[in-house]
Amino acid sequence: MGKDPKTNPSGDPAHDARLAEYRRKRDFGTTPEPGGGAPSDGAELLYAVQKHDASRLHYDLRLELDGVLLSWAVPKGPSLDPTDKQLAVRTEDHPIEYGAFEGVIPEGEYGGGTVMLWDRGSWTPIGDPHDGLAKGDFKFELHGSKLRGTWVLARMKPKGTRGKVTDESRDWLLIKKRDTESRAKGSFNVLSQLPRSVASGRSMREIADAPERVWTDDGAHETGARARAPGVPAGLDPSPLEGAKPGEQPESLKPQLATLADEPPPGDDWIHEVKLDGYRLLAFIHDGLVTLRTRNGHDWTDRFPRIARALTNLPLRNVVLDGEVIAQGDDGFPDFQRLQATIRGKGNSALAYLVFDVPFAGGYDLRRVPLIERKGYLERLLGASAGAAPVVSLCEHITGHGPQFFREVSARGAEGVVAKRASSRYESRRTHSWLKIKARVRDSYVVGGYSPPSGSRSGFGSLLVGERVDGRLEYRGRVGSGFTERDLETLLQRLGPARKTNPFDSEVPPADRKGVSWVEPALDVQVEFTELTQEGSLRHPVFLGVREDLVA
Asked: Which of 109, 233, 326, 520 has its CA 20 to 30 A from that of 354?
């Protein structure tokens, strides 16, 4: 077998020597695992964690170095709690291609069982990695979808060495260092709360129930499926998805909207995402040409040229994506004011397009496909396009554990969460299968009037705002803080000429009506507030900016 081109293909004796133990343990005529090619020449070092249900369930940590994947088996899996010291047993080096493997190793073969690609990304050594490995104090930073921040692998002292650490010890400890990515014990279990594959969105059972998944020299693909759609790469054929049907891709589409709820729903039929505070955009890619549209259908492609260029790297030439453009704040969560400043040329925050749905792809209408299947397909699509990241990336979710997730992200300063029924279809309307639960409450309201300025203030004193409810404009109160001098000037011009009548359909209190100039209700603004009072008014409202994407 040593002359088999699949098992000894590189022509580099040193590289082949490092993989000799890996190849010795496997019969590549039976197992779907890759044999190992030439070393990677990528600019970033690959990182992966594979959940492996072999004789015992464990997690395999893999870090690329010197053309192979250094590997440790972690029986209990990684923990974000710095007080946890998880045993990590060093195993044989694996080929770089193994970092993309997900599937079933046949029973009776070495490591026989189900393998899930649980996490992946890149990693950065802290100090010289070779020195760290030799000393048994190996520090590094992970840049994965689930695991991030600083970690250390510390080699344990083997028995019979009188307390000395030797390079012969296979037992290490995997420890999360304290930083912004670490979590206190009991606050967030990353293994149970983010259990699905980062590559396919599937569970271990779903992977095990699809034994037709095989490995070829071109990578993983499905066999026995229907003929894939024309021009669609292997592995991205949408036709096998339950509910997918051939359908012409539209030039515009009304997005699905979420209904406000008081608390996240329990149960595993719900997935939960961090609520994004940005601009909702649908990306229409037709024959490789990208058009970005707001939820009101406005063409904003020219406003986000970097995102549009990144989307041209996707392997599909025809697809519709639904997501949100955000600017990241200092707390790691989206910052709407930074986003506005960057769009106006007054800031330089890096913008990103976080994608959470794919209603059309490859000539197929996916709106009847269950949401969890659409997200799995979307993850494969975005994962197949390294050129799009990090400008374009997947909006991550967890399955179940809604109340705990809401408490976690709220404590970290997020605006809230969006809960979505995993089995739901994509519908172009506001539904109860998508729910938004807010912590720091932010929403858009339409301006129906303004009060005169007082003291040294120019322009206006406050904005009178309302909410559209069943075709009526319900009054929600006055917003008088959060404005810059420029806001006071430009908003007054944008509100247009005064009108004679009150545009609100519900009562405006006499104190709020005093001296007010009424305007056409055409301008939406983003407002942050603590809560709605029993009377339906905003409590402690603060102006954040104009919702340019909702301007008629």
From this structure: 233
For β-strands 289-294 and 351-361, DSSP reports them as unpaired
> Based on the number of CB atoms within 10 Å of its own CB, is 388 exposed (0-12), middle (13-18) or buried (19 or more)?
buried
**Cα separation, 449 vs 519, whole angstroms:** 5
The residues annotated with a catalytic role in the active site are 275
> Please, where are the H alpha helices in 461-515?
485-495, 510-513
Classify residue 412 by its DSSP letter. T
* 181-205 pLDDT, tens digit each: 888 877 778 888 788 887 777 788 8
Strands 392-394 and 351-361: parallel
Per residue in 126-150, pLDDT (tens digit) is 999 999 999 999 999 999 888 999 9
Whole-number Cα distances in Å, 182 to 148, 149, 152, 340: 9, 8, 13, 31
Cα–Cα dist 28/309, whole Å: 41
Whole-model pTM above 0.70? no
Helix (H, G, I), strand (E, B) or coil at 307: helix
Half-sphere exposure of residue 451, counting CA atoms within 13 Å on the CB side? 20
